[in-house]
C-alpha cells in the first residue's frame, strides 16, 4: 500500500510517501518566524504558498504519480488551528479529487511509531518532547498509549523558544539557544518536578529575570541544564516504576545532543537500552504521518470523511475514544 502523509500541525509543512513501512520520500519546508515568533495566520499562509511545491517534490523524489497513491494520511492534531486546517482541507480535497482512502493520524502517535520503527523496539518507555509536548508514555495491551507524566504547563521546546524571544535572539529557536549555551556557567534557577510531571513556566520567568543580571550565555546554559535534569529525573522515575528495559526519546527536542548524552548516561547507569531515531524523523515530517497512517489503517480502517476535521487538542490518550467513534 502506498501512503502519502501530510504534516501541518505547526510551522512545518511536510509530505512524505511510504510503501508499507518503506519510506520513499520526505520533503520538509519549515516557516521561520524570526524573532516575532510563530504567528498562526502566517504559518497557514506559508503552508498554502508551498503546498503544491512540496507535494510535487514528494511525488518526484518517490518516483510515483498521484494515481499510484492508495491512502492519504494527514496529521489531525494536536496542533495550532490555522496551519493544521490547511493540511486537513488539502488532504480531503486530494482524497475526493483522486478518489483515495483517507485517514486522520494523531501527531504524537506518529512521532512514537516512527521512532520505535527506527530503534527496532516494541513497547519501550517513550519520552516525547517537542515544542508543545513533553510526555512520558507507555503502550498498553490494547495498543493504545497511556500518559504516565507530562508537563503541567508549557512544552520544553516552547520554554526554549520563549526564552530565546525574551532575550531577543534573531533566530528564536531551541537549536540556536543550544549553540549559545555552549561553554556557559551555571546560575541558580528553580527546579520543579511533581512525581512524573514537569512544570516549566516558573523556570521561564526566573530565567528571564536572571538574564537581566547574568550573561545570556550563562542563563541559556542554566535553563537547558535545569530543564534537562528535570526531564531525566521524571523519566528515570517512570523507568523504575514500569520496570521497562528500553527507553526511546522522540520529538523535536530529542534531536538535542546534550540531552541525548544525559539520557544515555542515565540509561547506562541503570542498565537500560537507549534509543533515538534520525534527526530528520524527529523533526515534524510527513513520512512519519504516512508510516503511522498505514499502521493505523491496517488495524482500524479509514476515517469517515465527516470526521476528517482538525482536533487541536487531540491528546494521544484520546485515540481509543476517537477511533471508536470514527
Ligand atoms: Fe512534532
UniProtKB/TrEMBL annotation:
Q: Which GO terms describe its cellular component?
A: cytoplasm; EKC/KEOPS complex
Q: What PANTHER family has UniProt attached to this entry?
A: TRNA N6-ADENOSINE THREONYLCARBAMOYLTRANSFERASE
Instruction: Give the E.C. number(s).
Output: 2.3.1.234
Record has Cytoplasm as a keyword: no
**Coiled-coil zones:** none
Q: Give the domain of life.
A: Archaea
Q: What Pfam families does the record tag this protein with?
A: TsaD (PF00814)
Q: Name one GO molecular function term.
A: tRNA N(6)-L-threonylcarbamoyladenine synthase activity
Top EC class per UniProt?
transferase
Protein name, per record: N(6)-L-threonylcarbamoyladenine synthase
| Domain Gcp-like: start-end pairs | 23-291
